[in-house]
Design a protein that fits this description.
The chain is built from 15 helices and 13 strands. It is α/β, with parallel strands linked by helices. It folds into two domains: 209 residues, 3-Layer(aba) Sandwich (Rossmann fold); 160 residues, Glycogen Phosphorylase B (Rossmann fold, 3-Layer(aba) Sandwich). The chain has a seven-stranded parallel β-sheet with strand order 3-2-1-4-5-6-7, with helices on both faces. Strands 10-9-8-11-12-13 form a six-stranded parallel β-sheet, sandwiched between helices. Strand 8, helix 8 and strand 9 form a beta-alpha-beta unit. The chain is elongated and about 70 Å long.
């Protein structure tokens, strides 16, 4: 293709049509990231189409942006290790998903399939193979062997481009994806509104955990730490903000039992995380396997100090004693000891960490930076595919 032809078609390729797939219809960190991408797509006057497992808060958010939503079969499956029923349901779902996506993916109408999570990736790889490019956005590490293997096969089969929220998440996928097609882009967040706080032992601390209620998010460890802290700090208040996304089994009952008699308030699911953070003096992130921790950088922007287990991708975000506080041993005892030390520490020490964290958010985690980096990958992938296959862009929608 000559330079003249390329220059002639460059303006024609400015329009882009993207099919987005998400494995949930409820809201979580990955779904909020997806909405941020949709907002960036809208600003470019591109067109997005969404397929979700059904109605729910995410579908409502998508429709409020004037976008169409198709229903695609996907689970629900259990969180963590899967049941025998999950394993029987998965191939049936993939077959149904592939049939549906084959109809939705028209190379003359779709430039790119954006898969926001691993469960729809196999069907997308089968349906999009040699027809349109696939971008897989990985928000959590695929630890189970079968999940990583299935994702790896899908990536290779479709020659997918991969965006991971941290090096921790990217590492297991590196063997499946070409080096130049693997991008580590940390999540970004809007400014939650920085507020000065008074720290130190005299402060009546309000300490909270924000995240979906599931074993990997550590509500049990948080409550066990509270049971050790509450007698020593009777003025302290504790909150848990979140709700289960997947069937939680007996874990929610277990958490409720642990909370009995403790000074802890359950806020349920909240969309206004900035408002929740405004009411906290310390955010606790006792996650056992966190891809990155979007709520951490939300707290950075809001001026809320963060204490977290040094697990998963969290040490890529928090520099210990500089932008937050890390707990090296992921146990309730170690967590309680670290929270106690923060409460009793010099107020200027905590304030210095908070200021450093805010600067870190400004440099690396603002939503505008996240959107810009994602859009750069999308543009390069979609436009390069059309150039290589000499496919004209879809017509502008009226």
């Amino acid at each position: 293709m000559t330079d003249a032809k390329g220059h002639q078609l460059q303006g024609y390729w400015k329009r882009m049509e993207i099919l987005f797939l998400d494995q949930f219809s409820v809201m979580g960190g990955a779904q909020i990231c997806l909405l941020d991408v949709l907002d960036a797509v809208e600003k470019r006057d591109w067109h997005a189409h969404i397929a979700l497992p059904g109605d729910g808060p995410l579908a409502e958010q998508v429709r409020s942006r004037g976008l169409a939503v198709d229903k695609i079969p996907c689970g629900p499956y259990r969180s963590g290790s899967k049941s025998l029923g999950d394993f029987f349901q998965l191939p049936l779902d993939v077959w149904r998903q592939k049939r549906m996506l084959t109809e939705l993916i028209n190379p003359k109408q779709v430039d790119l399939v954006y898969v926001n999570g691993p469960r729809l990736l196999p069907a997308a790889a089968l349906a999009a193979h040699d027809r349109v490019p696939v971008l897989f956005h990985a928000h959590s590490r695929l630890n189970q062997g079968y999940a990583a293997g299935l994702a790896g096969w899908s990536i290779r089969h479709s020659d997918a481009t991969v965006v991971a929220c941290s090096n921790y998440v990217a590492r297991p996928l590196g063997q499946y994806v070409k080096k130049l097609k693997l991008h580590v882009i940390p999540n970004g967040t809007p400014d939650a509104g920085f507020r000065e706080r008074a720290f130190g032992p005299a402060r009546s601390w309000r300490i909270g955990l924000i995240g979906r209620i599931s074993p990997e998010k550590g509500q049990a460890e948080f409550l066990q730490a509270i049971s050790m802290l509450a007698p020593a700090f009777p003025a302290a208040k504790f909150v848990i903000c979140g709700a289960p996304i997947l069937p939680a089994g007996k874990y929610l009952d277990f958490v409720s039992e642990l909370a009995r008699g403790l000074p802890v308030e359950f806020l349920g699911w909240r969309d206004d995380i900035a408002s929740v953070l405004a009411g906290l003096d310390l955010l606790v992130v006792p996650s056992k396997d966190e891809g990155m921790g979007r709520v951490i950088v939300e707290a950075f922007s809001a001026g809320v100090p963060v204490v977290a287990f040094a697990t998963g991708g969290i040490p890529e975000v928090i520099t210990g004693n500089e932008t937050g506080f890390l707990v090296q041993e992921a146990t309730p005892d170690a967590l309680a000891a670290r929270i106690r030390a923060i409460i009793l520490s010099d107020a200027e020490t905590v304030r210095r960490v908070v200021i450093n964290a805010r600067r870190s958010w400004e440099r690396s985690y603002a939503v505008s930076s996240y959107q810009s980096r994602i859009m750069q990958v999308v543009e390069q992938l979609g436009f390069a595919w059309r150039a290589e296959h000499e496919i004209a862009a879809p017509p502008a929608r009226k």
